[in-house]
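Researcher: I'm preparing a figure for a lab meeting and need a structural model of a single chain. I don't have an experimental structure, so a prediction will have to do for now. The sequence is pasted below. Please return the structure as tokens so I can convert it later.
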Amino acid sequence: MPAKGKHRRPKSQRFSRTIAIAGVGGVALALPLMGAAGVHAATPAAAHSVVKAAPAAAKTYVVKPGDTLSKIADAQNVSGGWKKLYSDNRSAVGGDPSLIHPGLKLTIGQKAAAPAATATATQAFAPKAATGAGFALPVQGASIGTAYKTAGSMWSSGYHTGVDFVVPTGTPIKAIGAGTVVSAGLDGAYGNEVVIQHADGKYSQYAHMSSLSVSSGQTVTGGQQIGLSGATGNVTGPHLHFEIRTTPSYGSDVDPVAYLRAHGVSL
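Model: Understood. Here is the structure written out token by token.
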């Protein structure tokens, strides 16, 4: 008998789990059960969600004069260097990674989308490579009037930015090589003009035409007729003003005669 006035302290349970026996198809299974208050069933591992970091957002880089893919890749910390940058932007750069021009837009951080089939005159196109088609003169049997870089106050740059082929109105004008038309229409002092981007990244320009037979976004082959010569724009008589540029825009001219000769065309 316990002492008067004292009560036996109930023995504390050292384990809160009991074992239940469940029969499944005649087989006894031991199942752990949670017993003590305040103890909760363990949460499944899936409840601890893992938040993955979002990939870095892609950005656009506009090529500047003097840029190379290697220089851009270093400055922009491109993982994989210039080869990765070229691979991601091959549709815009073209077949030669050394030929990038100011104004070209590159995607940094992911593969660039394929260019649209058509675009506005201010956009650059990645033309299809020439398939056996060589380079040729823009007009046949014409003599050169005003030469490249002839100085004069009549030109806003202070010099002649192209060469003039002296031809009468209506003379067929042809693309000097395969490429894509980036603009075709009226352009101020140039009158009716066509600008074509070629596979090497250079642009040829044909101005003062009386009529055009191509439109922006169209692919042309070397020697294909693109219009007729004329005297539209700021001129003193009919002729073809012809330029080679490093961008589609005025002010990026290079020697057109030297360019044609480098492509096997004699004048």
